[in-house]
What we know:
The chain is mainly alpha-helical. The protein is built from six helices and no strands.
Amino acid sequence: MVMDEVLITFLAVALVIALALFIYIGVFGKKHSSLDRDYYQRQWAIINRQLDGSQAELHQAVFEADKLLDRALKEKGMRGQTMGDRLKSAKTLFSNNNAVWQAHKMRNRLAHETGVRFTQGEVRGAMTSFKTGLKDLGAL
Length: 140
């Protein structure tokens, strides 16, 4: 008789744990859902067209690529008030975290320093890093 009560208690506890785990996955599992790859590929194609343009278009491509990566980070559930915070949260997701950071730093220099100019080669390097980061997140 005591053995039956122990078994029933064990099964009840197991059921409660399973139910809690199911609810947890349902609520928090959505943050890591897949991204709309078609959307990201279309946006990337638009950004990429600016790479053969003027200095202003090159710089705009960096801004747009940075924003696209930030959107993917948010959609993947990375927490933080700034993109830098979200990059820190996602560091283990990137195959080359340093390259992604360098590309983001290029964007910051363009945004906050006057007279900054980057060559087409430097911008293309940053764009490669942004693209790799987007691939790492499953956006491209």
